[in-house]
Amino acid sequence: EVQLVESGGGLVQPGSSLKLSCVASGFTFSSYNMHWIRQAPKKGLEWIALIYYDSSNKYYADSVKGRFTISRDNSKNTLYLEMNSLRSEDTAMYYCAKGDWELDYWGQGVMVTVSS
Amino acid sequence: DIQMTQSPPSLSASLGDKVTITCQASQNINKYIAWYQQKPGKAPRLLIRYTSTLESGTPSRFSGSGSGRDYSFSISNVESEDIASYYCLQYDNLPPTFGGGTKLELK
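Structure tokens for the assembled complex are given below, as produced in the milestone run.
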């Protein structure tokens, strides 16, 4: 059974940093591209980052480019999202998702709140 | 970026109704569209990929169709467990982009 479990969220002040993790199980993690998607409260879904299965390519939404960094450790079956210079508009539920292109399995999400 | 215009934003249906949601892409997406169901407080669940391919476990009352820029997603015989929000996703081009969502409610 595919499982994706996010952690690392919380309440932080504007301008601060946070690093999210997503631990994967139930599939060969090193064979699949992985994504981060977020959802602001009562809003729709926003894709924010993609990393290839071998970390050879990374892509970001314009809204986070230069502030967020996606990475992975295939030896630990873990995906990361390092978030710097956080803004109030980054407040959202953050989901990791598996899938080369379509996102076929999602974690349960982790909440990030940016507020003073 | 490809824009996905999803309509309607909300939909009210009775049990047993057929409902249809549409997504129009700002350019041809070559059938690379997926449909997701999201229930309150839960992560989205993939129902359909590549326009019309049902995922394992997706009931047959769900269907998808379309080509080019125009796509649709239908639920025949709406059941109470179908009350949720639905999103389309194009994955033909990077960045992947979602439609704005459709909230399905019971009439």
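The mean pLDDT of chain B is 97. The interface with chain A takes residues 32, 34, 36, 38, 42-46, 49-50, 55, 87, 89, 91, 94-101 of chain B (CB under 8 Å). Further analysis is deferred to the final report.
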